[in-house]
């Protein structure tokens, strides 16, 4: 049992699981790009749907496992904390993309729409938290609405990708989404798809181990569920998004990088749906603590700032990065300091 391991070995198991998830995600990025080219669905959609969902698997396993064990705060904070951390990763990637502001170069209507969709989906849990406590068969109605909204949003994202009603202005710094190999669309997608599925299984198994060790951290070291969820397991299970973003930027697949983060964040809202189903003590949304809601607000604010940057498309800002990246780093740092030094424990119900 993981809970019986000595602390040194516990940290080692946690590190091995995190490493396995990250290494699997590096290979998954390359395969997602190949799948995007061979199916011709585009990098933004591949990043949002294929890569985003796959790299989020470890996180959803953590939230579901935490909810099933009865720790609603851990499950909720892991989900929304991961969204904030992953948005920060785009700001870091912007630092590494020297040619131009990343949000300028990765102009893509589908990414704009998915950012709007993410803001809508993140607003829905706020309605549940602030409304009366209710649950039917242990599930809050907002979870069903959130799931349906996600499916509808995915469909609309596909329409935006296939038949956009407007196009971004092309500049010398804009990176066009097109296959790296002109022969790629004629090749079979079966082999890379099967390899991709195998990597997803590795990431899922790693997520389960991370969830178990996180629960032990809470109990053994008397840490708050919000702290562990938002700053430990959420960040660790978000490392695949960080790695895939950096790899995609290095490969020049900028739409894939931005789409992977926004699409992954959109998929991460489904953590709350799955966790609400797994949580058997009523509504997950009324098992949250004040700091969990703070991280939800942080994710909302960072997404709105990112959307503003994608629309503004500033070529150069402070230190050759966009002003939105500076703001994203400042917002996350503020949330980090607040979580560590200003933790509150009152229930939000």
TrEMBL record:
<dbReference type="InterPro" id="IPR004837">
    <property type="entry name" value="NaCa_Exmemb"/>
</dbReference>
<feature type="transmembrane region" description="Helical">
    <location>
        <begin position="74"/>
        <end position="97"/>
    </location>
</feature>
<keyword id="KW-0472">Membrane</keyword>
<dbReference type="GO" id="GO:0006874">
    <property type="term" value="P:intracellular calcium ion homeostasis"/>
</dbReference>
<keyword id="KW-0812">Transmembrane</keyword>
<feature type="region of interest" description="Disordered">
    <location>
        <begin position="169"/>
        <end position="189"/>
    </location>
</feature>
<feature type="transmembrane region" description="Helical">
    <location>
        <begin position="109"/>
        <end position="129"/>
    </location>
</feature>
<dbReference type="GO" id="GO:0005886">
    <property type="term" value="C:plasma membrane"/>
</dbReference>
<feature type="transmembrane region" description="Helical">
    <location>
        <begin position="193"/>
        <end position="211"/>
    </location>
</feature>
<feature type="transmembrane region" description="Helical">
    <location>
        <begin position="223"/>
        <end position="249"/>
    </location>
</feature>
<feature type="compositionally biased region" description="Basic and acidic residues">
    <location>
        <begin position="169"/>
        <end position="178"/>
    </location>
</feature>
<feature type="transmembrane region" description="Helical">
    <location>
        <begin position="46"/>
        <end position="68"/>
    </location>
</feature>
<feature type="transmembrane region" description="Helical">
    <location>
        <begin position="135"/>
        <end position="157"/>
    </location>
</feature>
<dbReference type="InterPro" id="IPR004481">
    <property type="entry name" value="K/Na/Ca-exchanger"/>
</dbReference>
<feature type="transmembrane region" description="Helical">
    <location>
        <begin position="256"/>
        <end position="273"/>
    </location>
</feature>
<feature type="transmembrane region" description="Helical">
    <location>
        <begin position="321"/>
        <end position="341"/>
    </location>
</feature>
<dbReference type="GO" id="GO:0005262">
    <property type="term" value="F:calcium channel activity"/>
</dbReference>
<keyword id="KW-1133">Transmembrane helix</keyword>
<dbReference type="GO" id="GO:0008273">
    <property type="term" value="F:calcium, potassium:sodium antiporter activity"/>
</dbReference>
<feature type="transmembrane region" description="Helical">
    <location>
        <begin position="6"/>
        <end position="26"/>
    </location>
</feature>
<feature type="domain" description="Sodium/calcium exchanger membrane region">
    <location>
        <begin position="10"/>
        <end position="152"/>
    </location>
</feature>
<feature type="domain" description="Sodium/calcium exchanger membrane region">
    <location>
        <begin position="193"/>
        <end position="338"/>
    </location>
</feature>
<dbReference type="Pfam" id="PF01699">
    <property type="entry name" value="Na_Ca_ex"/>
</dbReference>
<feature type="transmembrane region" description="Helical">
    <location>
        <begin position="293"/>
        <end position="312"/>
    </location>
</feature>
<dbReference type="InterPro" id="IPR044880">
    <property type="entry name" value="NCX_ion-bd_dom_sf"/>
</dbReference>
<protein>
    <submittedName>
        <fullName>Cation:H+ antiporter</fullName>
    </submittedName>
</protein>
């Amino acid at each position: 049992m993981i809970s019986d391991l000595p602390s040194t070995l516990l940290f080692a198991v946690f590190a091995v699981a995190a490493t396995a998830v990250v290494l699997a995600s590096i290979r998954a990025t390359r395969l997602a790009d190949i799948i995007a080219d061979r199916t011709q669905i585009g990098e933004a959609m591949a990043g949002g749907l294929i890569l985003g969902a796959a790299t989020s698997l470890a996180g959803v396993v953590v939230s579901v496992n935490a909810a099933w064990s009865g720790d609603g705060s851990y499950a909720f904070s892991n989900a929304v904390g991961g969204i904030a951390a992953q948005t920060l990763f785009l700001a870091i990637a912007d630092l590494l993309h020297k040619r131009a502001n990343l949000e300028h170069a990765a102009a893509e209507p589908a990414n704009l729409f998915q950012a709007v969709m993410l803001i809508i989906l993140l607003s829905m849990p706020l309605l549940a938290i602030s409304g009366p406590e209710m649950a039917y068969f242990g599930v809050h109605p907002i979870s069903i609405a959130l799931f349906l909204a996600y499916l509808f949003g995915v469909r609309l994202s596909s329409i935006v990708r296939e038949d956009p009603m407007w196009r971004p202005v092309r500049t010398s710094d804009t990176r066009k989404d097109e296959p790296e190999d002109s022969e790629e669309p004629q090749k079979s997608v079966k082999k890379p798809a099967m390899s991709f599925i195998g990597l997803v299984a590795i990431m899922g198994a790693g997520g389960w181990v991370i969830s178990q060790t996180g629960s032990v951290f809470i109990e053994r070291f008397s840490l708050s569920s919000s702290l562990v969820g938002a700053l430990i397991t959420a960040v660790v299970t978000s490392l695949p998004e960080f790695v895939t973003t950096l790899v995609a930027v290095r490969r020049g697949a900028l739409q894939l990088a931005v789409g992977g983060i926004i699409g992954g964040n959109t998929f991460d809202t489904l953590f709350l749906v799955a966790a609400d189903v797994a949580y058997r003590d009523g509504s997950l949304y009324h098992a949250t603590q004040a700091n969990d809601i703070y991280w939800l607000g942080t994710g909302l604010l960072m997404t709105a700032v990112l959307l503003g940057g994608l629309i503004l498309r500033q070529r150069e800002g402070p230190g050759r990065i966009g002003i939105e990246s500076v703001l994203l780093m400042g917002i996350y740092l503020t949330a980090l300091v607040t979580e560590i030094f200003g933790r509150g424990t009152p229930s939000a119900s």
